[in-house]
Design brief:
With 538 residues, the protein is mainly β. Helix content is 3%, strand content 54%. The strands form eleven sheets. Strands 32, 33, 34, 35, 36, 37, 38, 39 and 40 form a nine-stranded antiparallel beta sheet that branches. Strands 3, 6, 7, 8, 10 and 11 form a six-stranded mixed beta sheet that branches. The chain has a five-stranded mixed beta sheet with strand order 14-12-21-18-19, with no helix packed on it. The longest helix is centred in the N-terminal third of the chain and has 17 residues. The radius of gyration is 55 Å and the shape is rod-shaped.
Length: 538
């Protein structure tokens, strides 16, 4: 029994010595930089020297008499070996479990994509025979990238027609835009918009802090920052970013009227202040509001009513938001006024009604329409045109009705409407009421043209200030002369000097440039000479 025990022990020892005892498993590798790392290189296209470090655990060793153990580590960059390490030979009289190894090296990498590979191998050798080998490999891919390249710009082209004005960049002065530069992540820079500047379209460009269309900084066309000076903490995310200062144009809108045949004069309101038209003295930041108001006005006795703005808006007061220097025009329609018409009748009762009026001062009034309507027994007739006379005629005889003062007779309404040939418009109705009676039609009735006229000369009003209307009638055609003199016989004015047909006329005399006093006016016509006095009192 004892022999069997000793034999079993010897066999076990021989088996143990012939089979090494070793730790099972492959080396575990940790590598830095990590896979997928993005590392900024140097400025101006340079790469970067990086630190490659690794740590390896679970390296195997063994115990075996007459054997030795060890491990190897080698590092490759882009497939090229850059580092190799071999663990010293260890006698195998001891057992080595869980050995570790770590190291690092600095290596320059150009900009681009690179692979870093670490290989580890543990082994056991006896009599130059590798009895056991465990190995592993780890590969990381990294990128060496360009530092952020940033562009700063303005939103306009300057007077050169090429560049975009100036920008202020902290530490770099005021370069011409667009200005591009490199800067490492983690640094700070401040951009400041320079205001004002001048564009190649002639606009002053300004930084506008108002509520309407304020200036902003944009990044790649999207809102980024609201203030004129913009601080920026640079990150790799800013690479190839374009930061643009959005300055605003100073527009100078022009406001004017438009009167057919007259021009662009008159007056117009801008921002509730009245100016002579045209006017262009306003500085408006683009797309900011400015208001214009078209006013009813009178030019040379033509009343002008607003019709529309040049954008076809019919609102007299309108708010505009100009995006350029442009003209806003108010268009008008003109009608002759009857302010100075002084329509009246003669004062001879039971005779045909004679209408008198003043000549319209605007020479483009070329005709007068004579209108009449009759209220008979309480019933008003429709208005009707009874005559049209040319300019130069200032009276009309209605041969159908006699003038009366009897309230029981017909009530007659007359209107003399000037015709403004420039716009083919007539004055608005302005009726004169008198009493009259319809003349009976008999075989020996006399037509208007056959009625006999008397020579006469008068003025109304008298005294006057500063204008009066001189009326005259001539019963024979011929050359007519009307002159005005002062009391010492010096001629002041010649009001008429032309051929006239028989009829009644009037002429307008303006003495606004003369001193107060008595003046003499005379008429000299065929078989008719007369002198009268008139008093001008200021």
């Amino acid at each position: 029994m004892r022999k069997y025990f000793i034999l079993s022990f010897i066999i076990s020892v021989i088996f143990f010595l012939s089979n090494p005892v070793h730790a099972e498993g492959v080396p575990q590798i940790s590598l830095s930089p990590a896979n997928g790392s993005v590392i900024e290189g140097g400025l101006s296209g340079y790469g970067k020297t990086i630190n490659i470090s690794y740590s390896i655990s679970n390296l195997e060793s063994c115990w075996w008499q007459g054997a030795w153990t060890g491990f190897e580590v080698w590092v490759l960059v882009d497939g090229n070996v850059v580092s190799y390490y071999r663990d010293p030979q260890r006698p195998a009289f001891f057992t080595y479990y869980g050995l570790t190894h770590s190291s690092s090296l600095n290596f320059y990498l150009s900009q681009g994509t690179h692979t870093i590979q670490v290989n580890a191998k543990s082994f056991e050798v006896k009599y130059d025979v590798y009895l056991d080998i465990d190995q592993s490999s780890t590969t990381n891919t990294i990128q060496i990238v360009h530092p952020p390249q940033i562009t700063v710009d303005n939103n306009f082209t300057d007077v050169s027609g090429v560049t975009h004005g100036l920008v202020a960049v902290s530490g770099r002065g005021t370069p011409t835009a667009p200005y591009s530069f490199e800067i490492n992540s983690g640094q700070s820079v401040t951009f400041t918009a320079i205001s004002p500047q001048t564009s190649n379209a002639g606009y002053n460009m300004t930084w506008h802090n108002g509520n309407t269309n304020p200036s902003i900084w944009e990044r790649n066309g999207t809102y980024f920052y609201p203030s004129q000076s913009m601080p920026l903490a640079v990150t790799q995310d800013h690479n190839l970013a374009i930061f643009e200062a959005n300055l605003r144009k100073i527009c100078k809108p022009n406001f004017q009227n438009s009167f057919i045949g007259v021009g662009n004069g008159g007056v117009i309101k801008v921002n509730n202040t009245q100016y002579n038209s045209p006017t262009s003295q306003f500085d408006v930041v683009e797309l900011n509001p400015i208001s214009g108001t078209a006013l009813w006005q009178v030019i040379n006795e033509i009343g002008y009513s607003f019709q529309q703005w040049n954008d076809e808006s019919t609102t007299a007061t309108k708010t505009f938001n100009p995006n350029s220097t442009q003209t806003y025009t108010a268009y008008y329609t003109g009608k002759p006024l009857t302010t100075n018409r002084a329509l009246h009748t003669g004062t001879v009762y039971n005779q045909p009604i004679v209408l008198y009026w003043n000549e319209h001062p605007n020479t483009n009034v070329t005709q007068y329409q004579i209108w009449r309507r009759v209220k008979h027994n309480g019933v008003m007739s429709d208005p009707q045109i009874i005559a049209t006379v040319n300019r130069g005629t200032t009276s009309y005889v209605d041969g159908e009705y006699n003038l009366t003062r009897n309230y029981s007779n017909d009530l007659l309404y007359y209107d003399v409407r000037p015709y403004y040939s420039t716009e083919s418009t007539y004055s608005d109705p302005n009726w004169l009421a008198v009493y009259g009676v319809l003349m009976p039609k008999t075989s020996d009735s006399t037509s208007v043209t056959e009625m006999e006229l008397e020579n006469s000369l008068s003025n109304f009003p008298n005294p006057f200030n500063p204008t009066t209307n001189i009326k005259y009638s001539i019963k024979e055609s011929g050359q007519v002369s009307i002159k005005v003199f002062d009391l010492i016989g010096q001629q002041i004015a010649e009001l008429v000097n032309e051929q006239k047909a028989a009829g009644s006329y009037s002429v307008f005399f303006d003495a606004s440039h003369l001193p107060s006093g008595v003046y003499i006016y005379t008429i000299n016509s065929s078989n008719f000479v007369q002198t009268r006095k008139m008093l001008m009192m200021k």
